[in-house]
Amino acid sequence: MHKGICLALLGLGSVLTTAAQTEVSTYTPGITPNGITYFLPRTGLHLTITARRTSYTPGEYAAYAERYLRQKGVVQKAYDEWELTGISIVGYGEADPTKAFTIALNPKTSAPLVALAPDGRLLAVNADQAPVIPALSTPSVTPDPVSKVRGADYKTEEILSAGSKAKMAELTAAEIYDIRDNRSLLTKGQADFMPKDGEQLRLMLAQLDEQEEGLLQLFRGTSTSETHVFTLDYVPQGDVDRYVLFRFSKHLGLVGRDDVAGVPYYISVTDLHALPAEQSDPKAKSGKPVQDLRYIVPGKANVVISRDDATLYTGTFVMGQYGRIEHLGGDLFNKKYTTRVWLSPENGGVTKIEADQP
Q: Which residues span the domain enclosing 36?
């Protein structure tokens, strides 16, 4: 609903009568026998939640890590661990079904160009280009770079020919200790075959480090990680106090808002009551119908994302549902000059007005 613009060349009446509808189920945006039907927008919040999943795989000899390497607490079973790393929010617009209006047509006047979003939001009048609608994030999974070191590649012939896993673990540990001894001799300059220069020494030490790392994987195991991007859309109405938006589990990642396996994350939205003073309309007071288009003077709201022990996000957004509906003067659209109007697709406010003399 955020892509594409429908353009229709339509006749606009000399009297632009708009009427809000309390029953909107029969409304279809676009051209109708009675005129142009359109919606004004409400502003939604598009959340991008970034999390990292680390998957641990135990080593082949994990059960022998304490016996042969004196390493305690080596995990024996595979598991996943999740960490929430970031939350960002952008606003987007969608048609508000409670703000539906019709512009009456009159064939005696010039025909304006009306731009509607696919969901019926009014984007522009007499304009050949509507405001740019921002792209929203999509869910994704991005694996982190994986180490090329594999423990199995460094098993010696003696290790491979051992008769039991316990014996293989013992021989692997002996190989690790031997590598450490060789490294110590090289750094002290006491090895039987010393390198000719510093660069050769560096390469030999790097090779020993890689061999040790590979063999240690057979005891300590390996871990891989990937970055997950989740998205949530939320459209607030009125003040919102600590509404459970989602839950997050250290072992399961993002879960549903009703899944008690995760820690709750709350959203709070506060109307800042930042609207300018309302302008009086003498025609409205006299009982005359208002002859114009409808638009929104958007309000502002403060948005907070939190959990019980921390505040994770705070931001202020311009939002249509916290504003009020106003009128564009009917004199803007007549035979004397052409008026071009652009409206914000996110909040319904007027972003630009231009008028040309005929």
A: 6-51+84-143+226-356
Residue owning tokens 């109708």: 32
189: left (phi over 0), alpha (psi -120 to 50) or beta: left
pLDDT in the model for residue 200? 87
Position 341 confidence tier, pLDDT thresholds 50, 70, 90: confident
328, two tokens: 């564009």
Q: How far is CA 200 from CA 211, 311, 343, in A?
A: 17, 53, 68
**Same-domain check for residues 187 and 112:** no
Q: Is the pLDDT of residue 142 over 50?
A: yes
Give me the pLDDT at residue 68, please.
93
**Same structural domain, 295 and 329:** yes
Cβ proximity of 151 and 215 under 8 Å: yes
Neighbours of 172 (CB within 10 A): 26
Backbone CA torsion sign across 197, 203, 208, 209: positive
Q: Which amino acid is at 297?
A: V
What is the mean pLDDT of the segment spanning 146-157?
Answer: 89
- Average pLDDT for residues 161-185, to the nearest whole number? 92
pLDDT in tens, 251-302: 999 999 999 999 999 999 999 998 877 766 555 555 554 546 889 999 999 9
Q: Are residues 138 and 112 in the same domain?
A: yes
Which stretch of DSSP H or E encloses residue 208?
helix 198-220
| This prediction's pTM | 0.79
Cα 333 to Cα 355: distance, rounded to the nearest angstrom = 9
Beta strands in 35-78 (DSSP E): 35-57
Residue 287's contacts (CB-CB under 8 Å, 6 or more residues apart) are: none
**What is the chain's mean pLDDT, rounded?**
83
CB 358 within 8 A of CB 337: yes
109: CB partners within 8 A, 6+ apart: 11, 12, 13, 14, 333, 334, 335
| DSSP 8-state assignment for residue 126 | S
Query: Which residues in 33-145 belong to E strands, given as ranges?
Result: 35-57, 79-104, 113-116, 122-125, 140-143
Q: Is the pLDDT of residue 74 over 50?
A: yes
Across the strands, what pairs with 104?
35
Residue 352 lies in a domain: yes
In a domain, 332, yes or no: yes
